[in-house]
Give the backbone structure.
Amino acid sequence: MQTFFQDLRFGFRMLRRSPGFSILAILCLTLGIGTNAAVLSWIEGILIRPYPLVPHQARMFALVGTTRGVPGHNGLSFPDFVDLQKNSTLFESFIVDRITGTTLSVGDRAERASVGIVSPNYFDALGVKPILGRGFRPEEGTGRNGHPVTVIAYRTWKGRYNSDPNIIGRTQFMNGVQHMIIGVAPERFHGTFVGYSFSFWVPTSMQETFDTTGYKLEDRGARWIEGYAILKPGVSRQQAQAQLNSISQRLEKDFPDSNRGHENQLVPLWKTPFNGAGNMTSTLAITMAVVFLVLLIACANVSNLLLARSLLRRHEMAMRLALGAGRRRLVRQLVTEGLLLSLIAAVGGIAAAYWCRNALVLAFPPPLPGTVIDFPGQIDWRVLAASAGICMASTLLFALVPAIRASDVDLSNALKAEAGGVLGGSSRSRLRSALVLVQVSLSFILLAGTGLLLQSLIKMRSASPGFNTNVVSSVVDLFSAGYKLDRAKIFHTQLLDRVRTLPGVESAALTRVIPFSYNVFSSAPIEVDGYQPPPNEQPTVEYVEVTEDYFTTLGIPIISGREFMRTDDENVPPLAIINETMAAKYWPGKNPVGQRLKAKDRWLQIVGIARNSNYRSKTETPVPFFYVPLRQNFRVQNTLLIRTPETPGAMMNALAREVHALDPNLAPLITERLQDQIDEISYSQRLAVTLVALFGAMALFLAAIGLYAVMSYTVSQGIHEFGLRMALGAGTKDLLKLVMSRGVRLTATGIMIGAAAGMMLTRLMGSLLYKVSPRDPLAFGLAFLVITIASLAACFLPAWRATRIDPVRALRNE
Amino acid sequence: MIKLRNLERRYPLAKEKFFYVLRDINIDIQEGEFISIMGPSGAGKSTLLHILGMHDHGWRGEYFFRETAVHHLKTKERATLRNEQIGFVFQQYHLLDDLTVYENLDIPLSYRRYSKSERAALVADTLDRFQIVGKKDLYPRQLSGGQQQLVGVARAIIAEPKLLLADEPTGNLHSGQGEEIMELFRKLNDEGMTIIQVTHSEKNASYGKRTIQLRDGWITKREQ
Ligand SMILES: Nc1ncnc2c1ncn2[C@@H]1O[C@H](COP(=O)(O)OP(=O)(O)O)[C@@H](O)[C@H]1O
Ligand SMILES: [Mg+2]
């Protein structure tokens, strides 16, 4: 104990004696531990245990519907959900959850609020108890529009109802129906949609009231639900999946029309392909990769600093051995010092982690106006401990080097050598060079990788989705206003005609769903003359209802046939326009124009082929897709698309006047360019650019510090040599040239090693890259440039210091 | 050749207090002289040599080197003068470990205005003259102390200086090797080079033509 305190005191003195070294080492470790802990906890909070207040998240899985032979995923239908619940024995519960929205009036303004359509067991199954009132009862799940009850979020209770303690039993008007408030959810419960806070929950019985696409509770083919399954304790995922498969097979046999090829998969929460999580997995993966590199650089820095110092302390170690210190005693002394260093850094790391966490949460822009996002911002202690552990382990490891080296040296030789004589022993100078090489090559790999990621993110952002993103879109919420189909049809027809005559409007069209929105496209099992699907497979294709001028307005070329016309309405036979991928898949080598396809029991005649465009994301693989005339398939809710040079604001005003003329109670809701919509839905990518740039800059900063430290150590070790060279006639320029040329040689070698290693390592990033080769010359070129500049800068200061050396002092024999 | 007048060198000790290493030094040295400086450790011998060698600039007084008033020269001009006129031999040899004998000899030339071919010729001549041609590709650690100092002397005179300064050149050698170096000095002196050496040994001092005794920064005795 006594010796421990003695070691501790000496350790403190050593840190104080070289404040530059201590500050650099602690700074590097702090940044490394801090950013890692922040980002990893963030990832843990979003993906691994995404739902605050929900216990047993380890037993909770996302329920994902898939169709054999069709890439991607779909949802669950309500009848299937009921059957799963009834027939399973290994599951504690299944829950159902569908995000939707409603328009609420706040005084004379309209405001969007998010609504979750959930199974009645939702709160019980999740183990979340309302703080006021109750959750839903089993009977409230079914009965078409029969149970207008709602559980409200804590935030809604506080904001909209001023925390009224007598709120239970009051009503809220939503989508034309009075809903009775039966419960208030606890404060930190936000629902089960990563990235969003729900404002209201309603039971599945109210689906038709909130879903613009019609009643679906009895439609086995309508897969509109996002489901979750909670396994019984002790049941493995494999067992549960096996049972799920057998139920799915039975359903397939019993209901071949709707369920042919349909399967259900249990997916871990962190791989949830739907809701916000699906959007963020790749972003988080990229961020994690970069942050891990930051940690790596931080560790390399500290190791380098410690190694460098170990060389300086060789004499001290040799002295201590000569004076009779045992090797164990030496090791203990060094461990104490390393421990001290990493403990201070760990404390700093915690502070940095807290700061970073807040910065990360702030960096997330709210995705849609009127909705609130809530990302978990808690630091996970296990993650913090892991990051700190990595740093401490590497610190301790390298702190021990002097002890190992000291016991290797021949005492008398070391003492004599250190006392003067020999200049720049060559083994030492080799180690010095190795330090710089490691630092340079690591930094190069990091920078090249960051460059690739940044570039693919920028490319992803600037890539054209295949349509004109300057088009203005606007919605009038007829559904919430209680319009029925006939009225809605007249309203939209008149509105479209009026809008087309507005000054500045080049063309306009209606569509039921715009691309890159959270709304779902229609989908249908299809049949094609002469196309034989593989057995057990049911080709299902998504489509959307659009009016004439849709392709003109969005600038999507029709490569064969024609676009829809105003006369393509109920009076002519059903039509369709298909995309290129669909044409190639179902009519290989033939011209599909004039052919027909069967969807929802109707034969549609193909009148045109449209160029492929993106429908949900820029990274999606091209899928078959088709369009049908809106006038043959009218729905209550539609979106107006306008090509105009006017601003969305100006358009909104003109539009508001036209809407007002048609119905004084209505106003257009959201008016923005499609680009805004794309930005909203791909905000995680924008965030990734920010994060990668941020952490890339941090890594560069750390790398530069490391380079500088190693370089200046190199110079300080060469002080004898520089003094001697000065005494032999070297001038300022000669010395500058000498140090710089050594630095440049080392840098060049380091870059070469880094480039070679980088070429191999960046291939591993292939899946994270978008339209960028893992050997992209620009990324590597930039990394080369930045590293060269950084290391020249890192060399120059020590080099200049070398020229200030007093040769008399440098050569004095002490 | 050298004339020092009222030269002093001091280091600040505390506020307004100084530690005098050299005081009121007055020396006259003629071309072709061979002088030994003696005195106990800490007397200021090395300091004086570094001042003469124009490595140290923190002194006061007058220093004339062949009609040039060194005390009026800027640092850069002193460096030029030194490079042209002075060579230096160290007690610890101070050879660069990572360079061969050949490369060590080339260093001083690389800092002066010699063409590549002149440098090669000079190094070859010097290797020849010191009879170390066979060792030109060896590294210093492969040589004995005496051989290393031989290279040290060769390096000091390779740029053909007029004045050779040597700080205890035989301090780290045993007597046989020391004698060899002293014979070499005598030969160089006979060829016309002015030499000033610091030494502790009366025997080595006897190779010189004159001895200056230093004690606590004062010149205590001059022998003719
Ligand atoms: N940078 C310095 N600061 C203070 N004192 C110094 C410095 N350099 C040398 N001295 C002192 O000057 C004195 C003379 O040193 P030196 O010329 O090396 O003596 P010698 O070579 O005769 O043994 C010594 O006492 C030494 O401690
Ligand atoms: Mg001395």
